[in-house]
Specification:
Blueprint lengths: L1 E3 L2 E3 L5 H4 L8 H11 L12 H12 L4 H18 L2 H7 L14 H4 L11
Length: 121
């Protein structure tokens, strides 16, 4: 089991998919990284050599990922909370933050719809 950026990557997966287990790395980014390093995308994680793993680690050091990025995001939200701005109020109410409509199409952010009892009389 390979360990990159404090994340254990599963052995049975292709490198392209396994890199997406790292926070904030998507398929497109993992493809760009592998293309840049000339590593085959369909190669399994357990088949990678230590040199290839070191190349991937060095490439990911230039990006803000995992705990550093989580800490950065949480500090940004804490800053909004301290100044009590409108965006923080939306965060605290679990509503969409960036001016999206909420009458419909906000189910992802608001959660499952709840029925209102005895609405019609």
């Amino acid at each position: 089991m390979a360990r990159i950026a404090w994340v254990n990557l599963p052995n049975g997966k292709h490198v392209e998919i396994a890199l997406t287990y790292i926070y904030w790395i998507w398929r497109s980014q993992s493809n760009k990284i592998l293309d840049k390093l000339w590593i085959e995308k369909t190669k399994k994680i357990e088949k990678l050599t230590e040199q290839e793993l070191d190349l991937i680690r060095d490439e990911l050091k230039s990006n803000l990922i995992e705990w550093d990025l989580r800490r950065f995001i949480s500090s940004n939200i804490k800053r909004l909370q301290e100044i009590n701005c409108y965006r923080w109020q939306r965060h605290s109410k679990k509503l969409p933050v960036r001016w999206q409509r909420t009458k419909t199409n906000a189910r992802t952010r608001k959660g499952k719809a709840t029925a209102v009892a005895w609405k019609k009389k």
